Amino acid sequence: MLTKLRKPFCICLCSIVIFSTFKPLVTAAQDTTFSRPPVIDSWEKYNNGVKTDSTQAMVELKTLIPNLEYDLRYASLNNFMHRLMYPAGTKVTFLRRPAARQLQQVQTELATQGFGLKIFDAYRPYAVTVLFWELVKDERYVANPSKGSGHNRGIAVDLTIIDLETKKELDMGTGFDNFTDSAHLDFKNLSADVLKNRNLLRSLMEKHGFVPLETEWWHYYLPNSNRFDVLDIPFTRFQRKQKSTNP
Q1: Which residue has the higher pLDDT, 121 or 1?
Q2: Tell me: the pLDDT tens digits for 153-171?
Q3: What is the pLDDT of residue 137?
Q4: d(Cα 145, Cα 183) in Å, to the nearest integer?
Q5: Domains (range + CATH), the chain
Q6: Does 30 have pLDDT greater than 60?
Q7: What is the pTM of this model?
Q8: Long-range contacts of 207-215 (CB under 8 A, 24+ apart)
Q9: How far apart are CA 215 and CA 83, in angstroms?
Q10: Contact, 161 vs 169, CB < 8 A?
């Protein structure tokens, strides 16, 4: 998802806050600094792809993993942009079927230790990636929409571990979307407990087929992402379909 961030972000964030106060959401047509990749924004095209290959189906995660916890940051103001990036009240999130199944395996194994997963973000419509770019335009901070992202493809997830009884997050040393070296997986100047917690998340995610992003302890994705198209289909459209089918 978002890539390395350094001190210049502080200045950039101030600009974003001012910008968001005076200007409504901008559209991709207003930006010529990137080339739009092939994007599936038609429900018919998406559905035809699923009919050909069922692994392409998007699954709402709680329909498969009921005891997941959600803290969907971009559906609130509690994110690094300090603005809604998803429609207000969004309470669903999705992954492609293989990613959802593999995440279910992680949750099952964690449960044997009294732990579970909390999801910060998963599928992200391409238009939102464009909006990040419109506001920031720096690959150190956000994904370049010329490439799309694992989130747009439905195979990347941002998450942490919680205690199933208390719902409290395990200490990972930083919060979500912390853009400092201390969020990197190779950063070792942390307490033994934090390193143990990060290693638990990483070891289980890797065991079940996910790959970590070295600069963000919370971000994992499936390899061979190009077998999945970049999507720009609203959450609500997937949700309507999900109500009539099971994963």
Answers
A1: 121
A2: 999 999 999 999 999 999 9
A3: 83
A4: 24
A5: 8-242 (3.30.1380.10)
A6: no
A7: 0.85
A8: 207/106, 207/109, 208/102, 208/103, 208/105, 208/106, 208/109, 209/102, 210/99, 210/102, 210/106, 210/157, 212/185, 213/1, 214/184, 214/185, 214/186, 215/3, 215/4, 215/183, 215/184, 215/185
A9: 23
A10: yes
